[in-house]
Write a structure and sequence with these properties.
The chain has 137 residues and is mainly beta. The chain is built from one helix and seven strands.
């Protein structure tokens, strides 16, 4: 009788419901919309004349959440980029507004300036969007 109860117990345990692990996150964050504002920088004892930029983007990742974001500006000649971190201003790691700031000297006025916004999620997936702006306009 005891052996029968032991076997019944094993069978019942063997039929227990096992919850499946969530599917792995294989999709990078969604970036957009993006806005860029420009503001003149007047000369001072610590800076020269130039333009300050603020990049603002909504970045979402419903899987593992956003781990980091940054904006890259092509500032010298083709292939030379400056990287600036973007900080979450509001929301959470699954959906937030991220802001990054940079500035350039006056010699860039009127120049077409390419930029990339890159976001990486906690699973390591990366998304990039590209755009450009005209400095000083």
């Amino acid at each position: 009788m005891m052996l029968g109860m032991l076997i019944l117990g094993i069978v019942l345990l063997g039929s227990a419901v096992v919850l499946a692990e969530p599917a792995p996150d294989k999709i990078g964050p969604t970036i957009g919309p993006v806005s860029v504002t420009q503001k003149p920088v007047l000369p001072s004892s610590t800076s020269s004349v130039g333009v300050a930029f603020t990049f603002k983007a909504q970045i979402m990742d419903s899987g593992s959440g956003v781990a980091e974001a940054y904006v890259e500006l092509e500032t010298k000649k083709e292939g030379m980029w400056t990287v600036e971190p973007m900080v979450r201003q509001s929301g959470d790691s699954r959906q937030g507004i991220y802001v990054g700031k940079s500035s350039l000297r006056a010699r860039f006025f009127g120049r077409r300036l390419p930029y990339d916004i890159t976001a990486k999620d906690k699973a390591g997936n990366v998304s990039v969007i590209s755009g450009y702006l005209i400095v000083g306009k």
